[in-house]
Amino acid sequence: MAYLIQLNSFFLFISLFILLIHLPVHQAVNGGLSVKLIRKNSTNAPLQRLTDVAQTNSYAYLGEYLLELSIGTPPVNIYGILDTGSDLIWTQCIPCKNCYKQNDPMFDPRKSSTYTNIPCPSDKCSLIDTGVCLAKNRCSYTYAYADSSITQGALASETITFKSSTGEPIQVNDIIFGCGHNNTGVFNDHEMGIIGLGRGPTSLISQISSTFGGNKFSQCLVPFHTDISISSKMSFGQGSEVLGDGVVSTPLVNKDGGPLYFVTLLGVSVEDTRFEISNNSETAPKGNMFIDSGTPPTLLPQQLYDQVFDEVRKQVPMSPITDDPDLGPQLCYRTSTNLEGPIITMHFEGADVQLTPIQTFIPPGAKDGVFCLAFTNTSNENAGIYGNFAQSNFLIGYDLENEVVSFKPTDCTK
Ligand SMILES: *[C@@H]1O[C@H](CO)[C@@H](O)[C@H](O)[C@H]1NC(C)=O
Ligand SMILES: *[C@@H]1O[C@H](CO)[C@@H](O)[C@H](O)[C@H]1NC(C)=O
Ligand SMILES: *[C@@H]1O[C@H](CO)[C@@H](O)[C@H](O)[C@H]1NC(C)=O
Ligand SMILES: *[C@@H]1O[C@H](CO)[C@@H](O)[C@H](O)[C@H]1NC(C)=O
Known about the structure:
By secondary structure, the chain is mainly beta. It is built from four helices and 31 strands. It has helices spanning 204-208, 302-315, 357-360, 388-391, and strands at residues 12-13, 26-29, 32-36, 50-51, 57-58, 66-71, 76-83, 89-92, 116-117, 132-134, 138-144, 150-163, 169-184, 193-196, 216-220, 233-236, 248-251, 262-263, 265-270, 273-276, 289-291, 298-301, 332-334, 344-348, 351-355, 361-362, 370-373, 375-378, 384-386, 394-399, 404-409. The strands form seven sheets. It has a seven-stranded antiparallel β-sheet with strand order 2-3-16-15-30-31-17, with no helix packed on it. It has a six-stranded mixed barrel with strand order 6-7-14-8-13-12. The site of one 2-acetamido-2-deoxy-beta-D-glucopyranose has 5 residues, from strand 12.
């Protein structure tokens, strides 16, 4: 998900198929916090379709990673999409004027003794651009995403509880969140909202960084194909540094003070064949791509996408599927064994990140034995997206104190 920055250049991701599990184990490390992420299994997964709102149809598959939080007193579990592409933390709330179906009970603020509406006007209400005053001087918010999902409701504060490795609960009070009473979009019934991890003041990391000893976090997402009993991991604060052999780092680019983690992509190689956006890091367009854990595929600017697509097709020693209308213009192959595809290297400023087929070829929903290149195109030259398929099997550290993102190839299933 990306917070709405330029409506006409983004895609609608329809989540018909969400993966997997439920592993609510948390552990505190060195004053920091480590948690395991959740993926939910969804049976009868239909083929995924990714529709560009403004333009044409294209196709992809969806895989979001869910973060478990306990909210309120007594605490109620919520599972929200982990989203580095937005700021707000929100969940569906009772009473629901207009909510999508969710499996678990919705949060009911009347049953929590620590729920507090944010007053309006107030500095806290102004943290959300769209914060407006409602009757009884309450702050109401509207938050829209690039895929046209919208949540509306009351901006509130609550106690959030994390479980430490010893099972000790760790409480953080007065976390600002959206109690969503009117939520639309294409959500899976396991998804109870979105946990924004962007750079802005209302994101989870901004609100808990002082509790956990530093404005930094890291994530290690398991690949799409991974058995659902194996969870991804996240750490917040102290102890989340990404260190050691094989670490590469690229500077974050702060564009317009927005919530997104922009980095600079200079080019992409398919094995040894390199395609440039710019061959000169001095003149490269700074911050032309953002890293988004809430968007599954990687979106490249049109020309680069076409070059990569053609080169991958040239290098994969198989014929692509051309007779399946469901697959649309994607580059897909049918194979009973692991796909042998080229290494694709993302050349970020100062950091070459090598992707293997497990990160670049993903099965589209229920199609057995079919793998498709998990890249797609965007007409926006200045806002490519580095999606979550490509982020898997890397320990990725966001160090917001030093303004760098680091990548370390890691088997996240271990
Ligand atoms: C997940 O779904 C698949 C079918 O799509 C099923 O075979 C498997 O047992 C499920 N796993 C769990 C843990 O529910
Ligand atoms: C819910 O939100 C939508 C879009 O923001 C708006 O058009 C609609 O009027 C709202 N519905 C209610 C019941 O508030
Ligand atoms: C850099 O790119 C320009 C055109 O974009 C090309 O003319 C030039 O030869 C390239 N330089 C190198 C060193 O590849
Ligand atoms: C993506 O590329 C296809 C052709 O491969 C084109 O029809 C479509 O308009 C492009 N979409 C965007 C958003 O540029």
